[in-house]
Write a structure and sequence with these properties.
Layout: E1 2-7, E2 20-21, H1 25-33, E3 39-44, H2 52-63, E4 67-71, H3 77-90, E5 95-99, H4 101-105, E6 117-119, H5 124-134, E7 146-150, E8 153-156, E9 184-185, E10 188-193, E11 196-197, H6 208-212, E12 217-218, H7 221-233, E13 238-241, H8 250-262, E14 269-274, H9 276-293, E15 295-303, H10 307-312, E16 320-323, E17 326-330, H11 332-341, E18 345-351, H12 359-372, E19 375-379, H13 388-396, H14 421-438, H15 440-446, H16 448-462, H17 468-471, H18 477-491
Helix pairs in contact: 1-5, 2-3, 8-9, 9-11, 12-14, 15-16
Length: 495
C-alpha cells in the first residue's frame, strides 16, 4: 500500500520555524515499523507552514495513498480536522487514521470527523497490525489500541500495553521516508532520537501518565547508538533526545554519555530534557560527563521556584535537592550552577499563572528566569485532556474557553483567583522578549553565519506587535500586546 504520514504545521511560540523546524519522531518510527513492502512517505508540515494546502494536495496527487495518518496534539486539533476534510475531498476512498496525544486522550473529539481509525497510545505495533488487517491479514476487532468503525458505530478495542523496548519489537525509524527537507535548529540540521519512554512521576499538568501509565522502559545502548549513527548519516548535526524523563535513571544516563563518547559521536550537539533534582544531586560528576559527550542545552524542568506552586503542580519531588537521603530544599539553583560551570546552556521550563498566583509570585519567577536561565521556556497552566490539573480547573470554573488551537502553553486560557488570563499572559510576554534577545550573542559564537543572516528575522518574531511608536514610548506595551495577540491568531490559520 501507499501510506502518507503527516504531522501538523502548528508550532509553539517558543519554537518559531525561523529557529527550529524539528521532525516528528513518531512518524519516522511508524514508517520504520510497517512491513517493508509498503511505500511510506512522511511529511512534516512544519516545513511548509504557509503552503500547507498546496503541499498536502500535491502529495496526495503524487503518492495516491490508500492510507493517510495524522499525528495530532491538542492545539493542532482544528488544523488536523481541516486537513482531514481536505484529504477526504482529494481522495474519498483513502483510509484516514489519527494518532498522538490528543486522539489518544480525547478520542471523543474525533468521532464525528470523517476518519476511519484512531490509534490510541503507542502507535508502532498497532499501526503495523492495522496495515496488515487492511490487506486482509488480521481482524480489526483484535488489534489492541485501535478504535474503528463497525456497522455505523465506533468500537474501541482494549488498550495496548506499553512496549518494553528492550526487545526488538520496535525497529529503528525510517528517516529515508521523509519527503520534505529543511529540518534545522539554529541553522544546523537537526533530528530527534529517543533512548527511553515513560516517567514515574505524576505532575498534575502532564499527559504522559494518562497516555502510558507510570512506567519507564529503555532501549539497549546498541540500538540507541545505531539510531544516532543513522540520524548522522542522514545529515543531522544536532540531536534532540525526546525521552519523557531521561534523567530518571542517572546511572543509565551516565553510561549513555560514556557510550556516545566511546562511539565517537560526541562531536554532535545534543539537547535533552532533564530534572533539576537529578542534575543537582549528581551534577558534580554528571555535568562534566555530559559536556564531554556533546550536550549543549538542557531543557530544565524547573516548573516554578515557589514551593506552594510546586505542590499544586505535583512537581515538588522531582525538584528537591538531597544530601545523604535528606531534603535540602529546591534543587534548581544547584542544577543550574553545575550546568553553567561546564558550559552547558539552560532552557528554563517554568509554569506561571497557577490558581493561587499573584502578580508578585509571577514576577518572582520571571525575575529568576531573567537572572539564571539562558533561554526562557515559560508556559501557563493548560488544561490538556485527562490531566489531574484539568479536572481541578474544571471543578473551580477557571477554564476560560475551549478554543483548543490556543492550548499551546503560551496562550493563557485559564484565569485564577487573583488575575485574568489576559493579565497572566501579558506579564510573561512582556518579560520574555528581553530574555530571548540576551541569548543571541551566545548563539552567534556557535553559529555566526546563521545569526548574521537571520538576526533581524528573529528579532522581528520576538518583538512582533511592537512598532516604532512602542520603542519611542509613544504607546504603552498593552497596545503592542493587543497587536501581538492579533498576529498570533492569524498565524494559527494554516489551512
Amino acid at each position: 500500500m501507499n501510506i502518507l504520514l503527516l504531522s501538523m504545521p502548528d508550532s509553539f511560540e517558543h519554537m518559531p520555524s525561523i529557529v527550529i523546524r524539528m521532525p516528528n519522531g513518531a512518524l519516522s518510527s511508524l514508517a520504520g515499523n510497517v512491513d517493508g513492502h509498503h511505500r511510506v512517505a512522511v511529511a512534516d508540515l512544519i516545513l511548509c507552514q504557509r503552503r500547507v494546502r498546496e503541499t498536502v494536495t500535491r502529495l496526495v496527487q503524487e503518492l495516491d495513498p490508500q492510507v493517510v495518518g495524522l499525528s495530532v496534539m491538542t492545539f493542532q486539533r482544528r488544523t488536523a480536522e481541516r486537513i482531514i476534510h481536505l484529504i477526504r475531498r482529494l481522495k474519498p476512498d483513502a483510509k484516514i487514521v489519527v494518532g498522538g496525544y490528543d486522539p489518544s486522550l480525547a478520542s471523543e473529539a474525533y468521532l464525528a470527523m470523517p476518519i476511519d481509525f484512531i490509534v490510541r497510545g503507542e502507535g508502532e505495533v498497532t499501526f503495523r497490525e492495522l496495515t496488515r488487517a487492511l490487506e486482509g491479514h488480521g481482524d480489526m476487532h483484535f488489534i489492541s489500541g485501535l478504535s474503528h468503525r463497525h456497522e455505523g458505530r465506533w468500537i474501541h478495542n482494549q488498550l495496548r500495553a506499553p512496549s518494553l523496548l528492550e526487545s526488538e519489537e520496535i525497529r529503528l525509524p525510517n528517516r529515508s521516508a521523509r519527503v520534505l527537507e529543511g529540518y534545522t535548529m539554529l541553522g544546523r540540521q537537526v533530528d530527534v532520537i529517543e533512548t527511553s519512554r515513560g516517567c514515574t512521576y505524576d505532575c498534575s499538568f502532564c499527559s504522559i501518565i494518562e497516555m502510558r501509565g507510570r512506567n519507564f522502559h529503555t532501549y539497549s545502548f546498541d540500538r540507541v547508538i545505531a539510531d544516532i549513527r543513522d540520524a548522522k548519516e542522514h545529515g543531522a548535526r544536532t540531536l534532540f533526545l525526546v525521552d519523557d524523563n531521561i534523567t530518571l535513571n542517572v546511572r543509565r544516563f551516565e553510561a549513555l554519555c560514556n557510550a556516545i563518547i566511546e562511539a565517537g559521536l560526541h562531536t554532535l550537539d545534543y539537547f535533552l530534557q532533564g530534572m533539576t533534582s537529578a542534575i543537582a544531586n549528581h551534577g558534580e560528576q554528571l555535568a562534566p560527563l555530559m559536556k564531554r559527550a556533546g550536550f549543549r542545552y538542557v531543557f530544565l524542568g524547573i516548573e516554578n521556584i515557589l514551593e506552594s506552586d510546586l505542590k499544586l503542580l505535583q512537581a515538588s519531588a522531582k525538584n528537591t535537592a538531597r544530601v545523604n537521603g535528606h531534603s535540602t530544599g529546591n534543587a534548581t539553583l544547584q542544577a543550574i550552577e553545575y550546568l553553567h560551570r561546564n558550559g552547558i546552556y539552560v532552557v528554563g521550563g517554568l509554569i506561571v499563572g497557577s490558581p493561587n498566583d499573584t502578580v508578585e509570585s509571577i514576577e518572582a519567577n520571571l525575575a529568576f528566569a531573567r537572572k539564571y536561565v539562558d533561554w526562557p521556556y515559560i508556559q501557563h497552566p493548560t488544561p490538556y485532556p485527562r490531566t489531574p490539573m484539568t479536572d481541578d480547573f474544571r471543578r473551580r470554573g477557571l477554564i476560560e474557553h475551549e478554543r483548543f488551537e490556543e492550548y499551546d502553553g503560551t496562550t493563557s486560557v485559564v484565569h485564577n483567583e487573583n488575575m485574568s488570563a489576559d493579565e497572566i499572559e501579558y506579564l510573561r510576554w512582556k518579560a520574555e522578549r528581553g530574555m530571548k534577545t540576551r541569548h543571541l550573542p551566545s548563539v552567534f559564537l556557535h553559529d555566526p553565519w546563521f545569526v548574521a543572516r537571520n538576526a533581524m528575522k528573529m528579532a522581528a518574531h520576538t518583538y512582533r506587535g511592537s512598532t516604532l511608536r512602542t520603542v519611542l514610548g509613544l504607546e504603552n506595551d498593552r497596545q503592542a500586546f493587543a497587536r501581538y495577540k492579533q498576529i498570533r491568531g492569524k498565524e494559527r490559520e494554516y489551512v
